[in-house]
Amino acid sequence: MGYKSDIEIAHSCALRPITEVAASIGIPAERLDPYGKYKAKLDWELLRELDGGRDGKLVLVTAITPTPAGEGKTTTTIGLADGLRRVGKRAVAALREPSLGPVFGVKGGAAGGGWAQVVPMEDINLHFTGDFHAVGAANNLLAAMLDNHIQQGNALGLDPRRITWKRCVDMNDRQLRSIVDGLGGRGNGVPREDGFDITVASEVMAVLCLADSIADLKRRLSRIVVGYTYDDRPVTAGELKAVGAMAALLKDALRPNLVQTLEGTPALVHGGPFANIAHGCNSVMATRAALKLGDYAVTEAGFGADLGAEKFLDIKCRMAGLRPDAVVVVATVRALKMHGGLDKKDLGREDLAALEKGVPNLLRHVSNIKEVYHLPCVVAINRFPTDTDAELSFLADKCRALGVNAVLSTVWEEGGRGGEALAREVVRLCETENGAFSFAYGMDCGAAEKIEAVVKRVYGGAGVSFLPAAQKQLDRLAAFGFDKLPVCIAKTQYSFSDDPSLLGAPEGFAVTVRDVRVAAGAGFLVVLTGSVMTMPGLPKSPAAERIDVDDNGVISGLF
User: Cα(132)–Cα(170) distance, rounded to whole angstroms?
Assistant: First the structure.
């Protein structure tokens, strides 16, 4: 085929009108709100009609611990959906929307790659249907109403030193992590320390992704804790009378977006919380719609299985009553050799010793899916041209020893055709194996016990160290009853531990918890570990430097 960039491949393919894509899964044109020719939102009437339908099979795609060598989880998800349709199954993909932070930062676009993409990729990677702007607007409206309440007399007695609600922007901007605002005199507000989170780490994004209706959205928004009073009482968005206006900004953003793959497979792309900070899954509404519209709903969870998959299973599935029928763990020989200590520049040569040192990372993720969550599992080896037969055979043998099949995937190069073997194995798992799905922890224990369960059972660590400030916050949250919520652990994506330099499958480490925050609207506690940031920064040479648009409006540099 010759090498082309992702955006060149996307531009070379003819897209089907979105009404035709919708019709292929039984959606009439009048149940769509088109945003141009190739993307649309599902209307409320359709979403209500789908409530009583039959569910298809739910397939979760996750991955090994990521490295700079790349894993291709989203690409595999898209290629698998295409592959399922090629083997005669009605498949619908359910994916997250990309954040502008990674698009203009290090990672670039997040609409798949090669011949396994969702399109129009430049729209999806940029403003799309405006969902993220709506989330940011609702978040910042609450911040404005909070500060205005204090300015106008502070009837609720909010302590300006104990405001927990931050503003947000969907961009990597380290300059905004910690700021002082309200300066310039009495008429300009009350001076206080403040800060910004990236939009995809905001609680409003999590609320959007976990809500199942406008009524549920409003209930969740009303529970958001924005700060504490002078006498240590939490204050909510409901008390600030912000819920109606926030919901008005979010009502259209709550509806899933329909697009297509390069092969015309329907894809619902909706919501986009980060998995290293937030819960890392697309919306409940999109996942449920995909289950109703297809025989197979193929979804993905961000970063490695210790992050996105753990949160998908312990938070999203618990809240939404979902149960995966099969799990795909994506791995590459290249990435596993990096986990084995090989330098990135040497990944093109065969090195079975490095692969043997790195493969425990994959095996721990697989073991977690099978032994902690008790779900059927397959390993998808995202094949690169430099992979040797000996390396692939070694990897397959290691997986087989755990009772898991390893299937080669070539969807980047071949699209759905390269995903047919994986699709057949997924169908086999869904039709012949029934896992006794269980969670990593129960809900009857306290927050500290839940955190320790994830660290020991999923990460493979020895225990948890709570800094004094974090322990004090845990005790305060327990006094308000918040310790009964699930935990959403924010940590580095590059290691099972909270130390990004510990590759492979480290053991004997302790995870350090430095802060715990309540996201009462989302319905979980955010546990900050190590040095993970809720507002990333741009690298020395950001991807934004290489993105451009020509006189005809054609964008280049997205990848």
Answer: 7
Q: Is-catalytic flag, 251?
A: no
Helical H segments across 300-415, by residue range: 310-311, 317-320, 333-339, 352-367, 389-401, 411-414
Question: Which helix (H) or strand (E) is 408 found in, with range?
Answer: strand 406-409
Active site residue 437: no
Helix/strand number for the chain, H first, E second: 20, 25
Q: Does 275 participate in catalysis according to the annotation? A: yes
- One-letter identity of residue 555: I
φ and ψ at 58, to 5 degrees? -105, 120
Catalytic, out of 39, 57, 73, 220: 73
The answer to whether residues 501 and 509 touch, using CB atoms and an 8 Å cutoff, is: no
Catalytic residue list contains 196: no
Please say whether the dihedral angle defined by the alpha carbons of residues 405, 408, 414 and 417, taken in this order, is positive or negative.
Answer: negative
Written as tens digits, the pLDDT of the chain (559 aa) is 456 888 889 889 999 999 999 999 999 999 999 999 999 999 999 999 998 778 999 999 999 999 988 789 999 999 999 999 999 999 999 999 999 998 998 766 789 999 999 999 999 999 999 999 999 999 999 999 999 999 999 999 999 999 999 999 999 999 999 999 999 998 999 999 999 999 999 999 999 999 999 999 999 999 999 999 999 999 999 999 999 999 999 999 999 999 999 999 999 999 999 888 899 999 999 999 999 999 999 999 999 999 999 999 999 999 999 999 999 999 999 999 999 999 999 999 999 999 999 999 999 999 999 999 999 999 999 999 899 999 999 999 999 998 999 999 999 999 999 999 999 999 999 999 887 999 999 999 999 999 999 999 999 999 999 999 999 999 999 999 999 999 999 999 999 999 999 999 999 999 999 999 999 999 999 999 999 889 999 999 998 999 999 999 999 888 7
User: Which residues have CB under 8 Å from 293's CB, separation 6+?
Assistant: 25, 26, 27, 50, 56, 92, 266
Residue whose C-alpha is closest to residue 150's, from 89, 205, 194: 194
165 tagged catalytic: no
Whether 73 sits among the annotated catalytic residues: the reply is yes
pTM: 0.95
